[in-house]
Amino acid sequence: MAKLSTWLSIKDLGEIYGISSLNCGRTLQKQGWRDRHGRPTPSAIKAGAACNQLPRNPQNSSLWNAKVCKAFFEKTGHQPISRKLQVEQWAALLNALEKGSPSIDATAEDMAKDLPKELIKEVNIELTQQGCNFQIIKPNSTNF
Q1: Which residues contact 126 (CB under 8 A, 6 or more apart)?
Q2: Which residues form the domain of 114?
Q3: Alpha-carbon separation of residue 87 from 77, 80, 110, 117, 120 (angstroms)
Q4: Has residue 24 got a pLDDT over 50?
Q5: Are residues 45 and 102 in the same domain?
Q6: Per the domain annotation, does 45 fall within a domain?
Q7: pLDDT tens digits, residue range 60-109?
């Protein structure tokens, strides 16, 4: 059984390719699969790329078929990023935020809220290896 669900939020679909939900939405809109209001077009639904019939995600937005969208994203030059690279990038970002900068308002704690839960343990290990004292605490649990 596949580890990832076939039906994903636009945020989760973008994470596969290392892009924001905004860029993911723009890419789908260029394909003609998303309208200017962020809803799937009839052609996206007909292609099986999107669905409004499934239970909605927590943001109550449409769900996208990762398998159907894969060919299009890769055709437009997007490549899935590896889990190792995701972990390294998150750890580098959180480490830099923990050190602080007068020009950045965000804190490591703020950004950690956007970290996919399945990466928390690995990012904490990477942060420790980078010599950073910051650790992400999973909601409603103790630290790893």
Answers
A1: 87, 88, 90, 91
A2: 83-129
A3: 22, 14, 17, 12, 9
A4: yes
A5: no
A6: yes
A7: 578 999 999 998 899 889 999 888 998 999 999 999 999 987 888 889 99
Tell me how crowded residue 123 is: count the other CB atoms within 10 A of its CB: 26
Do 89 and 62 lie in one domain? The reply is no
**At residue 2, does pLDDT exceed 50?**
no
Q: Are residues 62 and 92 in the same domain?
A: no
Give the percent of the chain with pLDDT over 70. Answer: 87
Q: Are residues 49 and 90 in the same domain?
A: no
Are the beta carbons of 6 and 66 closer than 8 angstroms?
Answer: yes
Closest CA to 111 of 85, 84, 92: 92
Closest CA to 31 of 70, 89, 88, 86: 70
Same domain, 63 and 100: no
d(CA 144, CA 136): 8
Within this chain, do residues 53 and 88 fall inside the same structural domain, yes or no? no
- Count of the separate structural domains present in the chain: 2
For residues 38-58, average pLDDT: 81
